[in-house]
Write a structure and sequence with these properties.
By secondary structure, the protein is an alpha/beta fold. It is about 45% helix and about 20% strand. It binds adenosine monophosphate (AMP), fe (iii) ion (FE) (2 copies) and zinc ion.
Amino acid sequence: MSYADLHLHSHYSDGTFTPEEIVARGQKQGLGALSLTDHDTVEGCEMMASECAKVGIEFVVGTELTSEHKDNELHILAYFVDPKNERLLREIAKFQIVRQDRIREMVAKINALGVPLKAEDVFALANCKSPGRPHVARTLVRHGQCRTLDEAFERFLKKGRPAWVPKSKMSALEAIELIHQAGGLAVLAHPGLNRNDQSIPDLVAAGLDGIECFHTKHPPGTSQHYLGMANKYSLLVTGGSDCHGMSKGKPLIGTVRLAREHFDKLKAAAAAKKISTTNAHQ
Ligand code: AMP
Ligand code: FE
Ligand code: FE
Ligand code: ZN
């Protein structure tokens, strides 16, 4: 039975929905469990948890950490972390500053191309601590500098385009450790998008717990490939839509669903981890 959407973004990072809207849409889709996985923040989790509780949906605290391994960008999903864990909050705050500085750099590059844009306008539109390229793109569209978000990415923001700025990231191996010390499970996000399977053994050696086999941008063959990897390395299986709001007139939420069987295994692993962490601290 399909049950959970465990990859969702809200306006606390580069999504457009509020946590309330996500939960209302999740409920309409008949989902039993949701996780909020905003980029480098857990800010929206408290609100999302209380909305889920109101309608009887299981909620999993989450975040998607931007990290790198051997010069490849990898996104590590953190599930069941303590949203008040001091070290986690301290580390993600550093990367939020990196994101804010990067917005200023991108805007300066866009200005140098003769296109007027103010960093303040991007921050006002983003209205969150974890701004990213989509906020720059949306501001360019709102101010009539680009017709579409795609155009903004193609002209300025994609890797290799003139306003692209690399982002300093935490190491993926450190991200796994950071998640574990916050009581959570570390899951490799959308491996089919990054296509660096060669990193997986290193991540597994560092304690990776799971792999996102089901994702909007994974065709069935890709999901099967990563289910094989999960089996080979004894990893938990996760999945989600990676909904950032409306996409081509429709919300993605609920279009990719994780079976109950996989969700229950994830929950059991998180519970086992919490028990062993508590014992270790006694
Ligand atoms: P950032 O974290 O600032 O590097 O921005 C990455 C985010 O930009 C991703 O999570 C997507 O939401 C979005 N994104 C990346 N590439 C594109 C693209 N070509 N068109 C639209 N959105 C994109
Ligand atoms: Fe995003
Ligand atoms: Fe991602
Ligand atoms: Zn995502």
